[in-house]
Amino acid sequence: MSDTQLPQGDPKGQDSGVHPAHSGPTGAPTPMADRPDTASTDDQSSAHQVAEAAAQSSTEPKPVENEYDGADRETQPAPSHDVPESFNVTVIVRRYDPEVDDEPRWVDYDVQMYPTERILDALHRIKWEQDPSLAFRRSCAHGICGSDAMRINGKNRLACKALVKDFDISKPIYVEAIKGLPLEKDLIVNMEPFFDSYREIQPFLQAASKPEKERHQTIAQRERFDDTTKCILCAACTTSCPVFWTDGQYFGPAAIVNAHRFIFDSRDEASQVRLDILNDKEGVWRCRTTFNCTDACPRGIQVTKAIAEVKQALISGVKL
Amino acid sequence: MSETSSSLTLPDPAPQKTSFSGTLYRGNEGMWSWVLHRITGVAIYFFLLVHVLDTALIRVSPEAYNAVMATYKNPIMGLGETVLVGAVVLHALNGLRVIMVDVWPWATRNQRPLFWIVMGLVVVLMAYFVPNHLINVFSPMEGGH
What is the ipTM of this complex? Predict the structure, then answer.
C-alpha cells in the first residue's frame, strides 16, 4: 500500500506484526490481503503507527522481522525458516446470549497462539475456527478505533493491544465485557449511556468569532490540552471506574477528558458552559481518585490528572 | 449492580441494567486505597453513632453512663479499640493524601508512592500504639480511671 510514502518506513510491524506491504522484499505473497479487516485497516494504521510508535514505544512489542509477516494470522504458515514457536493458551470467555442465558457463563477455549499475537487474535481464532457465535466488537484492530475494549484478566484493555506474551500463559486468560454498561451479548455492551455523557459535555469547538484564515494558537497553548486529545472513546476508563459501576449517572472519566480537551483549548469560548455541566452532582466531584481510569487508558492519557485539573478550574478558574 | 434510576440529565436507553459483575476488577493502589477508605469510613461512622449515644447518656444519668462504660472494659472491646484506632489513623492519613491528590498536581502524579507512605505511617503509628494499648487492656486493672 502507501507505505513507500513514509521515508523512514515503519520498521515495526507494530501491534500485530501483520503488514502485508512489508513482506515485499521477502517475496512472500500477502496471504491475508483479501481479508476485509486486514486490507481496510492497513492504510490508516501505517500512518498512525509512526505517531503511535513514538508515543507508546515503551509498551509496544519489539520490531518484528519481516520473515514473521502473516505468521500470526495463521492458516498459511510463514516461510519455513525461523518459524516462531506456538503454544497452547486457554482463554476463558464470559459468554452471554440474552435469548438463551439467564446469567452469563464462562466458556473455555484452547487456542494455539504465537508470542507476537494479541488477545484479539485469540478471539478471532475462537470465532473463526471454533465457535462462530462468539460476539465481540473490533474495527481497526490496531488500537486506533477503540472498539475492542474489554476486561482481560480483570483489567480493562484493548484486545488488539494486549499481547499474549505479556500474560502468564500457564494460567487461563479470562476475557469478559467491560463493566457498568448494559451487557448485550458476550463481549458487547450497550455503549449509548457512555456516548450520551460524551455528547452532553459538548465535545466540539465553540467560537463565535470568524477568523480571517485560521485560529492561531501557540505551541504552549496547544500543549496545554494535548494529553486529552488522544482519547479514542473506547470506554476502558469509564468502565474501570468504581463510581461509574455503582452510579450509572456519573459522567465518567471519558466525558470529563473530552470536556478537558475543550475547556483548556484557547480557541474555545464555551469553557464555562462545560464547567457548569461538570459542576453537577454527577460531575467531576464524584471522582474518588482511584486512578483505575489512568491505569486502564490504552492511550496513556493521565485521566485522573485531567479530572483534577477540571476540579481546580472549577475552584480557581481556567488557567490556560 | 443495582438498577439505576433514570434522571433528567441522562436518558437511559436501557433502564434494565443487565451488567452482571463478573470477576473482581484488578485495580492498583489507587483503587485499594479507595476501598480501604470507604470501609474505614463506614466503620467509623457506625462507631460515632454508638459513641454519640453512649456519651449522651451522661446527661441522662451518670450511673447509667458508668454502667455502660464498665461493660466496655473487657479484652474484646480492647481489641475492638485497636481496630478502631487503626481505622481512624488510616482514614485520616489517607484522607490527607486524597486532598493532596485533588488539589496538588505533584501529588496527582505521585499518588502511588504517597499511598505507600500512608501505609508506612499507619504501620509505624500502630507499631507504637498497639503494644502500649494491649498492655493496658490485658494488665490487671488498678482501681480504674
Answer: 0.76
